Amino acid sequence: MANITKKDLVERIADRTGLTQVDTKIVVESFLDSVAQALQEGKNIEIRGFGRFKIKQKKARTARNPRTNQYIEVEAGFKPIFEASKELRKRINDSSDMGKVLSEQTQQQ
């Protein structure tokens, strides 16, 4: 199963809304920029029925490079997180195609 790209999203939304792909691309990119800007400002974004974007603070730690077995210090930082809503999780779990898709992905690997 292939990934869905931003271009694919623009095409799907344009087909459903009747907007041109150029206008739809502007809307999609504006949405993504707004999400990124809000996260940079330390704000959480909640889209009811879909999920929540938030920032999680990561502590400094020591990690090991598995190839070289060398230990390195990883600095503290922030990590963007997405948490799916109950409605989205239910929709995915209730999808009759999900089991088929996952078994196909497992077979391809």
Explain the overall architecture.
With 109 residues, this protein is of the alpha+beta class. It has two domains: 1-43, no CATH class; 44-109, IHF-like DNA-binding proteins (HU Protein, Chain A, Irregular), CATH 4.10.520. Helices cover 48% and strands 25% of the residues. The chain is built from four helices and five strands; from the N terminus they run H-H-E-E-E-E-E-H-H. It has helices at 6-17, 21-40, 86-94, 98-108; strands spanning 45-47, 51-58, 61-64, 71-74, 77-84. The strands form two sheets. A three-stranded antiparallel β-sheet has the order 1-2-5. A two-stranded antiparallel sheet has the order 3-4. Strand 3 and strand 4 (71-74) form a beta hairpin. Helix 1 packs across helix 2. The model has no long low-confidence stretch (mean pLDDT 91).
Biggest sheet layout: 3 strands, antiparallel
Q: Which class of the largest domain in CATH terms?
A: Few Secondary Structures
How large is the share of residues in beta strands?
Answer: 15-25%
Portion of residues in helices? 40-55%
Distance separating the two termini: 11 Å
CATH topology name of the largest domain, in short, is HU Protein, Chain A
| Classification by helices and strands | alpha+beta
Arrangement of strands in the largest sheet: 1-2-5
**Average pLDDT across residues?**
91
Q: How many H/I helices? A: 4
CATH-level-2 architecture of the largest domain:
Irregular
What gyration radius follows from the Cα positions, in whole Å? 19 Å
- How would you sum up the global shape? extended
Low-confidence stretches: none
Give me the CATH superfamily of the largest domain.
IHF-like DNA-binding proteins
By DSSP, the count of extended strands is 5
Question: What's the number of domains?
Answer: 2
String of helices and strands: HHEEEEEHH
